[in-house]
């Protein structure tokens, strides 16, 4: 365990982001993010207009580069998403717990839909893992697996109490965010590490919505517009799993 003096110091001074970037323009209710080299991709939903959006920003400055609407009929709620070399995989669902979803595969170059397949549940987060897709439903109480062509592979329950809003498979580990950030064993879904974070100066939990992990940095986009991207160094964050 941490010495009491060190624990008291941490509790008095919660971890702080190493950088904060304001994103340009209206972002509505943010959902998911993907860090892609010099780009930051963001999904969001406008609940009043019943529209969903995919944005591309310049990671370093927050400048908006491109955007496209992603809604399809009653399905206008894009969730947490992921990418491969050339495409983005985005779940777009009805805005209700047991709604339907279409999984869109969009070109990074043109933002056009290349293929899609339906799912009979609300899929709120998705990642690519070892040649297949892994998606969590509303609050990630279930995890589904599909092939890239949309063939159902399996479904299993979430053994953890956390209601994950984002999942990312990075460097051989499944990372899930929602209340806390868990590094999960991909097979058993048991936490290997548990990171706790505080709130922004707007009183919004850092782990509220969008999350990605790249090159040793934890990226979080918790706030609706004007949205700010917070970057943390996980080594500076108190790790509850560390003895």
What's the SSE blueprint?
Elements: H1 4-12, E1 19-22, E2 29-36, E3 39-46, E4 51-58, E5 64-69, E6 75-78, E7 82-83, E8 87-94, E9 101-107, E10 113-119, E11 123-129, E12 132-137, E13 142-146, E14 152-157, E15 166-170, E16 173-178, E17 180-184, E18 191-195, E19 210-214, E20 217-221, E21 228-232
Antiparallel strand pairs: 1-21, 2-3, 3-4, 4-5, 6-8, 7-8, 8-9, 9-10, 11-12, 12-13, 13-14, 15-16, 16-17, 17-18, 19-20, 20-21
Structure description:
The chain is mainly beta and 243 residues long. Helices cover 4% and strands 50% of the residues. The chain has one helix and 21 strands. The chain has one helix at 4-12, and strands at 19-22, 29-36, 39-46, 51-58, 64-69, 75-78, 82-83, 87-94, 101-107, 113-119, 123-129, 132-137, 142-146, 152-157, 166-170, 173-178, 180-184, 191-195, 210-214, 217-221, 228-232. The strands form five sheets. Strands 6, 7, 8, 9 and 10 form a five-stranded antiparallel sheet that branches. The protein has a four-stranded antiparallel sheet with strand order 1-21-20-19, with no helix packed on it. A hairpin with a 6-residue loop joins β17 (180-184) and β18 (191-195). The longest helix has 9 residues, at 4-12. The model is unreliable at 4-12 and 239-243 (pLDDT under 50).
């Amino acid at each position: 365990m941490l010495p009491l003096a060190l624990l008291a110091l941490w509790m008095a001074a919660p971890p702080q982001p190493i950088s904060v970037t304001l994103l340009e323009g209206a972002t509505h209710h943010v959902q998911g993010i993907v860090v892609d080299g010099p780009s930051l991709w963001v999904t969001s939903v406008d609940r009043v207009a019943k529209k969903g959006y995919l944005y591309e920003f310049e990671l370093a400055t927050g400048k908006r580069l491109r955007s496209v609407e992603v809604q399809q009929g009653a399905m206008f709620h894009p969730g947490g998403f992921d990418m491969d070399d050339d495409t983005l995989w985005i779940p777009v669902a009805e805005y209700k717990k047991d709604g339907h979803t279409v999984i869109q595969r969009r070109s990074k170059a043109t933002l056009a839909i290349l293929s899609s397949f339906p799912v009979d549940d609300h899929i709120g987060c998705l990642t690519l893992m070892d040649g297949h897709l892994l998606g969590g439903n509303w609050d990630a109480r279930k995890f589904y697996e599909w092939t890239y062509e949309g063939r159902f592979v399996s479904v299993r329950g979430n053994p953890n109490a956390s209601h994950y809003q984002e999942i990312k498979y990075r460097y051989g580990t499944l990372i899930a965010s929602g209340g806390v950030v868990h590094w999960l064993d991909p097979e058993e879904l048991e936490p290997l590490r548990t990171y706790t974070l505080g709130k922004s100066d707007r009183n919004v939990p850092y782990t509220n919505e969008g999350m990605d992990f790249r090159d040793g940095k934890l990226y979080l986009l918790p706030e609706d517009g004007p949205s700010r991207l917070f970057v943390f160094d996980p080594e500076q964050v108190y790790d509850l799993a560390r003895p």
